[in-house]
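name: query_chain
kind: protein
chains: 1
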Amino acid sequence: MKLRSYLMLSLLFTGLICLSCKNAEDTEKAASDDAEIRLEDHSEYDNVQAAISDYLLGLYEVDSTKIDKSVDTTLRKVGYYFDGDNNVYRDNLEMTFEQLSSLAARWNKEGNRVDDESPRKIEIYDILDKTASAKLTAEWGVDYFHLAKVNDQWKIMNVIWQSHPK
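structure:
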């Protein structure tokens, strides 16, 4: 009788372990399925992309109003420009919101800095409720962005950039 009780308890315990393992596998698969949701399907994807596009077009099209629309006034921007004459990077070039807006109003004023072949590649890495991160490859180089949703509008808060790699 004792042996039968031990066998029954062993079978019951084994069954519970197997059931627990199956539930863990199902939970892991569900989490994996959630991770496979495409970033492009996020409800804010187009809005984040629009903020970065406005930044790019503000400079390409000499339209500082697009900078004003997409960039927060507390912008922190720092960059690394490659000085081809001296074959070195100029480090930690800082720019404020006002300086960026002013640059947009003049950077391509002659219309000779960009053309139809100029890079315009936007890559969004992550979007949460209030923050997002992205990368832009443009004529001048590569910009990495931190964005925040401020008053229901996506704004670029931080930019770190460098000239195209040499």
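note: The helical segments are 2-35, 45-60, 64-70, 97-104.
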